[in-house]
Amino acid sequence: MLANEIKVAVFGAGGTGGAIAELLLYNNFGEIALIDVNGALAEGKALDIVQAGVLTGCDSRVQGGSDPALCAGAQIVVITAGIGRRPGIAREELLATNAQIVGDICEVIKQLAPNAFVIVLTNPADILARVAWEKSGFAANKVVAQGGILDSARLATWIAALCDVSQRDVRAMILGGHGDHMLPVRQFASIHGIPASLLMTDELWQTAVERTRHGGGEILSKFHTHGAAITPAHAVVAMIQALLSPIPQLLPVSVRSAGAYGLPEDVFIGLPVKLSHKGVENVLELPLEADELAQLHRSAAILDQAFQAWRTCQSSS
């Protein structure tokens, strides 16, 4: 199979960054750059991935190293670089260190890949997407964070398990921040087009929500040294595919709210959006229950307060 002409640069060659690069190979992206401060790690993973192309019939060019210039000319840049979560550490506690890392990367992107779409995966992803938007100077429709797709997949998994149906039949959507203050929207969950609320008791729904809300922490507690990698990687590749398609996909993606749902304009938060080769085409303002809207606003307030606290620290240092 012939590779396409798209170049994707991935900053961070850890578990998720490596998994993203591998999936991009299987999807026959023309050029994949894997960049990490540990250049040997990035080089080794790039070699391992490109050699798999012989056995899978994939012809992508895969490069790895520590030189940020490897991102030059990329149409899409994914940021996974930064310190990861450890048991007992909240995503927001990672902000100070990871904001510096993401900011530095965005300075490079601005110079070497000025037309790229930017996808932020580094935690806390919603807040760091706002950092990336400000540091890059890019239009808001070109900077997004992953979170909602991953969380929605986790919710769909639990709905399927609790209702004893195929995962392929389940659709779910989670809005709000990627963290404990996420907003699972019950009316948006369905099983082969049937509202999930008709097939799930309140107790089953709450069980699915709680397993989803703490899903990342549960996986982290099993691994001890790192969090989930495989599903986040698939979620990012789904976003990349959407950003290359002329046909918009409706996805829960962390974007600048621009005042949708009455939220603070500059907050990046998970919302239902149309995502395409134009970037974020628009946010869909769907009807929410009063308590859901209040929860969405609480989530936005938490994200905004964390960002403002970080900014204050930056100004005083």
Automatic annotation (TrEMBL):
UniProt domain Lactate/malate dehydrogenase C-terminal: residue ranges: 150-306
Annotated keywords: NAD, Oxidoreductase
Signal peptide: none
Cited Pfam families: Ldh_1_C, Ldh_1_N
Residues engaged in binding NAD(+): 12-18, 36, 98
Catalytic residues, chain numbering: 178 (proton acceptor)
Domain Lactate/malate dehydrogenase N-terminal: 6-144
GO biological process terms held by the UniProt record: lactate metabolic process
Ligand binding (substrate): 85, 91, 123, 154
One MF annotation (Gene Ontology) recorded for this entry: L-lactate dehydrogenase (NAD+) activity
InterPro entries, per the entry: L-lactate/malate_DH (IPR001557), Lactate/malate_DH_C (IPR022383), Lactate/malate_DH_N (IPR001236), Lactate_DH/Glyco_Ohase_4_C (IPR015955), NAD(P)-bd_dom_sf (IPR036291)
Domain of life where this protein originates: Bacteria
Family recorded in the similarity comment: Belongs to the LDH/MDH superfamily. LDH family.
Record protein name field: Malate dehydrogenase (NAD)
